[in-house]
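Supplementary Text 2. Reproducibility record for the structural model of the 710-residue chain.

All settings were left at their defaults, and a single model was retained for analysis rather than an ensemble. We include the record here because the model underlies the residue-level annotations in Supplementary Table 4.
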Amino acid sequence: MIFRTPARTAFSFSLALIFLVATSLLAQHLTAPQQSQVARLVHDMIESTHISQKQIDDTVSAKLVDEFVKTLDPQKLYFLQGDIDKFNKYRTELDDLIKAGNIDFSTMVFDLYLQRLNERIEVAHKLIDTPNDFSVKEYLEIDAKDVPWPKTVDELNERWRKRIKYEFLLMKLEKPSEIAAREKKRQQGNPDKVKAETDSGEPLVTTDEDARKRLHKRYKNIRDTLSKTEPEEVVEMYLTALCMTFDPHSNYMSPRAQKDFQIQMRLKLEGIGAALRSEDGYTIVASIVPGGAAAADARLKVNDKIIAVGNGTAEFVDVVEMKLTKVVEMIRGKAGTKVRLKVLTAAANDVKIYEMIRQQVELKSSEVKGEIIDSASRVKGTKGRIGIIHIPSFYRDFEGEEAGENDFKSTARDVKKVLHDFQAKGGVDAIVVDLRYNGGGALKEAIEVSGLFVGEGPVVQVKDQKGKPKVYRDDEPKPAYSGPLVVLTNRLSASASEIFAGVIKDYHRGLIVGDRTTHGKGTVQSVMPVGQRFLQLIKSQDLGALKLTINQFYRVNGDSTQNTGVPSDVALPSLLDNMDLGESFLDNAMPFDHIEPVPHRRMHQVTTEIASAIRENSRKRVAASDDFQKVDKDIEKYLARKQRKAVSLNEDDLRKERVEEEQKTREKAETSNDEFSEEPVFPDNSYNNEVLTILSDYVGMLTGANVSKK
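Retained model, structure tokens:
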């Protein structure tokens, strides 16, 4: 069973497509008859398996129209009211059509979407070259929920005029640091050139010519990318929209998407070990995976362009202007097989041919990491060896487990290795388990990781479609670690993360520190091959998979984490905590629920008095901290901006309104989800150092002598 935060498929202005060139099998493409078969099977599986046990009826049909349109055009920038009226004629028909395997509605809507998109892109290019008067007092509405669908083309053109003007103005007002960062990213393969440009002494500014060039390129990329959308992808979006009318975490995965999901859970891949992106018709190397074939070969570089691919000894196939997913499929393959790449190098702009042997690569950067920090070296007045365990997700290689592999990837196994490593290095005085931005993963992993810290006992309750709860226990005889513990969470700690945080809180095992509460996702998803109940009939077909909500989970105290999450014992100021993030902000989210608690131990490592004292000490430090005062100011400004329904298109006004975003940038840097980055496990910053001070307070209170400086 799988827990994840939602990943909505949405087309908008910003399209960053990066694909790993790695998998064990080529993804199969669904034929039209298979797509029809998938629709029927998904319909039946939802009705029989989803926890709500609701039927797909006229009410669901009406919601599906809205959900699919919102998937394609969330900002109401393409469709006209007349288009919506045309779609609304199907509000009571889609349930019957899908049941019969008819998905023509999705094709009709998407084809019209592409038509409208091409019309809008043409308008956008003209508007980009049209002079703007930035002294005019006018505003762009930014809340799509409050904006009606445009009734006429003229009304839509006016909406786009303001949109382009706003984007142009944002580029004109870019700070030098933003320009330098963009140039550095653009020229990753040539750092000397970047340094020469940024050290030249000339002010870094975005000229009108630069802005127009970038905007033209942006809209060309949008058109190029979306025009290459395949029928299978439209079906995936449509059936996912159907699933999401039931809850925000259910979705359909095409065979290709299913392969990518399996890579995420296994943390291993087979291929050359590179991530690719598409730009101006070229397939460009975005990053090289450490430990992969490309890294070992060392010739392929970031920003190199792959212009042709040869599988084994086969003839080269030109891949310029080819859809990125197709290029990825051509380069993918089993470990031990040969692939040849014809590359236009970024360094010399010449053509080279690189032959590589595909191999299996473990995604080390996405697995559990641990380090020991000397608290005194980071925070004056504290002491102790602090073990940091960063858990990015609760992964488990189910296929490896089923195949009987002894070393299949598992979060619990990796956490245990880190704990043993801490012990081998002389032990630690306390541990921080960092679950920030951990969107969840496998239920079994959440249970087994919990057992490493609480030992044998109930961990979570799971209620099925019939309303019957089942208690899941861990059988670890005793904890692998029983010392002082802080669990660090934020608004994006979800699902399996909340199970772990919840059991630590209910057992009084350790302190929960971070945002005021976690994400609030209290549902369980299971990934089921489409048609699995009919495998005797279709076992030779790969029809993708359905990730469907089949259960709800509850803490051992009987509370669901749904919507409410797991509250922190000590909350620290953060911009993220004030954003509309969390289950309660998602459409079609299931409600909070409570069931009977189950008997469980109280380990008495956190008392009301200890939590209250630590909270008060932290409050005083935070109030006196210049860094946290800046965070508070950023939060105030963000909340004020959040209430706005429109933004100014006047250059002077917008320049005044633009506030310093260092904290926001800092949080982004800390939360970067770059799979291949080598960031520190626990960066040295004011937020993390306050966590260390809290832990020092906690250790002192547990031992009867407060060792932290107040």
